[in-house]
């Protein structure tokens, strides 16, 4: 159960209702995941949901690659709802089951297309180190240009905020969902 009770549209303030309606009428079609929490601050929720719509639906990356970046972020934070929602979107977007399963297990997929490997290594470096090593950086620049590198950082950053929101407010996944296991080793700053 989420730490925050659902907000009923008929009990929302006018600014909350305006953001709610913008989310519902857009490509998402529903207020779920982090949006239910963010509505507590409609002034934050509105630009956040617009950035998210760009990251998910408007970037230069096809769904197969943007969802790959999102799954890596979900795995990094063990964000259960994010993984639940985006694993099927990644599959629908053309990302292979072997790639999705490897990420779920915290492994680098053994076989990826060239563009998938570039996105994977860039995101994994950014999430692990807080910066991107030279080789994966150069590969992303060569394949996607500076705009692609900037948008990939935006996707990672946005979904880090989503992951933290989901984890802090304990947004549940539907019953019967297969949860992500905790990471195999502690992340930087965690005691083992």
Automatic annotation (TrEMBL):
PANTHER family: 4-CARBOXYMUCONOLACTONE DECARBOXYLASE FAMILY PROTEIN (AFU_ORTHOLOGUE AFUA_6G11590). This is Carboxymuconolactone decarboxylase family protein.
